[in-house]
Design a protein that fits this description.
11 helices, 2 domains, 265 residues
Length: 265
């Protein structure tokens, strides 16, 4: 730590726990506790049970979880490809051109996500691009909402990248395509994996735009959580939320291992 005084370090740690526990850790602990409870009338939940998780295993929640995973994975890969391509292209532009590209990619983040869902609903409601009622429109919506984060991550990584590697390869006669695939992208691999992990996590929790466009046979888990809690089943919704968090964390841990290996290459 940058603070050398022992008293100051203890003060900072105390402040960290005072802020961290009620703002971050406690809400997650409440959700986990509620998922094992049948009632909560006092300071602590009562009636410990596994019935909520048994209902998840017997119902259509596994299908909803698979739908969320497939949607998030597809949207993350599309966002990574689009964001990386745009960041590489914007690197060659002048300052004004880069600002225009930045604004275009940040526009979906600047407006409410429900507006993005409604715009897609209107845009793809007529042939020849009739996508309403299909899983593809959900993937497109998620990709639009998370591409900005992939673009920003790759742009920041490009700004930190030492141009000497690219210049050395070019001076040895390497073609631009070879430099991109064998020099530049491998150096960007840790940032690319971080970007895809961020996009995946954001897509797994997206609900506002999804509520506008999802078809009945392609219901992601966040929509089911909303529907469950809206019916008054708060403890069942808590169990679904825990399943969503665990699945997301497992995937993110896998992405983190890939990123760690890429950093040591």
């Amino acid at each position: 730590m940058l603070v050398h005084s022992k008293a100051a370090r203890w003060t900072l740690w105390a402040l960290f726990f005072v802020l961290f526990l009620p703002l971050f850790a406690l809400p997650f602990a409440v959700i986990v506790a509620a998922s094992f409870a049948t009632s909560w009338s006092g300071a602590l939940p009562s009636g410990p049970t596994l019935a909520h998780y048994q209902d998840i295993a017997r119902g259509d929640s596994p299908d909803a979880l698979v739908t969320s995973l497939v949607t998030a994975l597809a949207a993350s890969l599309v966002a990574l490809a689009a964001g990386t391509w745009a960041a590489l292209a914007a690197e060659r532009l002048r300052a004004r051109g880069r600002r225009v590209v930045d604004a275009l990619f940040m526009l979906p983040v600047a407006v409410p996500s429900v507006v993005v869902g409604l715009s897609l609903l209107v845009a793809f409601s007529q042939p020849p691009l009739l996508l309403n009622g299909t899983p593809q429109i959900v993937v497109i919506a998620h990709a639009i909402l998370v591409t900005a984060f992939a673009y920003q991550s790759v742009t920041a990584a490009l700004a930190r990248l030492d141009p000497a590697y690219e210049q050395s390869a070019a001076s040895l006669g390497a073609r631009p395509a070879y430099v991109l695939w064998r020099v530049k992208l491998p150096l960007l691999l840790p940032s690319l994996t971080a970007a895809v992990g961020l996009c995946f996590a954001l897509s797994m929790g997206e609900v506002s735009a999804t509520m506008m466009i999802y078809p009945p046979d392609w219901m992601p888990l966040p929509v089911q959580i909303f529907a469950t809690t809206d019916r008054g089943s708060l403890f069942g919704g808590a169990a679904l939320a825990v399943a969503l968090m665990v699945a997301t964390l497992i995937v993110l841990l896998g992405v983190s291992r890939i990123r760690t290996r890429a950093s040591y290459r």
